User: What shape does this take?
Amino acid sequence: MDPRTKRRLTNITIGLLFLFSGIEYAVILPTIWAYLQTLHAEPYFLGLGLSAFSFSGLIASPIFGRVSDSTRKTKAIILFANLFEIAGNFMYFMGYSKWLLLGSRLVAGIGTGAGACIFGYLTRSTTTEERATVFAVVMAARQAGLLIGPGFNLFLRLCNFKLGPFEVNKYTSPGLFMCFMWIILQVIIIFMYSDLPLVTKNNSQRTVISAEEEEPLVHDDVNYKAAENNQYGSIIAHENLVQPTNEMDGENSRVDEYQYIPNGHIDEEYKMNDNPFHNFSATKEYLREEVVVVLTAQFITLFNQTALETMVTPITQKYFQFGELENSLMYCICGVEVIVGFFLVRWLSTKFADRVILAVGLLICNISCVWCLIFLANPKGSFAMLLTEFVVGVFLQILGLPFVAVSQVSLFSKVTAEKTQGFSQGLRRSIGGLATILGPMWAGGLTNNLYIMLGVMMGLLTLLTIMMVLSYSYLVETPPTLTSPVTGRNVEDDC
Assistant: This one.
C-alpha cells in the first residue's frame, strides 16, 4: 500500500475514534440519571458517574502519552486503550448495582487516554502550518458524534428483550451499543491504522523520514544515527546535509552537521538519545510563560463551558418550560453551529496565526459572559424577549468555543517540545479533565444564584485575557535553533 493511501486511511480511523467518543457521550448522558434511579442510587451518584469518566481519563492521558513518546507505538496504545472502552461499556450494560455502573464509567474513562497519543501523533506527523486545520477537523468529528448520537437513542429506547442473563432495555442498551461500536473500531484500527513516518523540518521544506531509509551520518570522529526510530529531532546542515571531509574547506567544516530540536528546545548533548525524556525537566518545559498561558486557557474555557452547559437545562425548564424534545432540538442546533464553527476556524487558520484566532475566541467569550450577566442572571420581560436574550447568549458562547479550542491545542503543540508531545498533550488533557469535573460542580450548586456563578466565570475570563495580552509576543512557535556539535555555538555566529 502506498504511503498516501496509508495516511488517508489512518486519518479516517482517527476521525472515527473521535466520532465514536462523541456518540458515546450523546447516547449515555440522556439516560444515565434514570438508569441510576432504577438501581436506587442517591442523587449525588449522577455527579460521581459523570466525574468518574473524566477523572480516570485525567490520570490515563499523561501515562499513555508518555508511553507513546518512548515507544513510538501509537497503534498498539490505541488498541489497548480501546479495550477499556469495550469493558467499561459492557459493565454499563450489565447494570446490577449503582457501584458497578460507577465502576463502568471509571473503566471506560481510561480509554479516553488514547486521545493524548493521537494529538501527539498529529503534532509529529504534520507541519506547523497545517496543524491547526488538522486539529479543527478532528475536533469537528467529535462534535459530529455529539450531533448524531441522540438519533441512535430513537431506536435504543425501543429495546426490550433478554440477551442470556442480561436484560436489554432503554437504559442498558446504550452500553451494549457502544460496546459493539468500540469492537468494530478495534477491527478498523487493526486493518486501517498505521504508525506513519514522522514529518520533520529540513531547510524550511517538508520531508518524511522512515526508520528504513535512515543512514548513519559520519563526520570525522562523530558517528551517530539521526532520528533513530523516527526521533522527533532531525539532523540538518546549514548548506548541505553531508559532505565528504576531504572536500570541505575551512568555512564548510564549521557548518557540516547540526542538531535541530523543534520549538527552540536545544539538547545539551550532541549525541542523540533513544529516550525522549533524557535530560527532560518538567519545570523548565511547562513553567514557561507561554505554556502557562495556554494551559490556563485550556482550564478556564472548559470550566466555563461545562458550567454553562450545566446551567442551560435548569434555565430552559424554569423560564421556557422546555421538555426533553425541546432540549434535544436545542442541542442539535448547537451541534450544527459548533461543527460550522470548527470548519470556519479551519479556514481561518490558513490565513491567521494561532494567537490571533485565540484572541478572537476570547473576545467572543468575554462578550458572551457579559451578555449572560446582564440578561440571564435575573431574566425579566416577555417570553419572546427572554427567549431572544437566551438564544443570543448561547449562540455567542458556542461561537467562541471552536476559536479557543483549536487555537490553544495547536499553539500548545508549538510551544512544547515535539519529542515529548504525547506526554505534554496528556498533561493538557488532564487539566481539561479537571476543568470538566469542577465546572459542573461549581454551576450545579449555584443555579439559583447566577450572579455569583457568572461573576466568577467573568473574573476567570478577565484574568485569562490579561494574561494573554501581557504574553502575546511569546505565543508563537520558537524559531528553530541550529547549534554546532563541535563548537556548541549558534551556526549564525560561526558563519
Summary: The chain has 16 helices and nine strands. Residues 201-272, 480-495 have pLDDT under 50 and may be disordered.
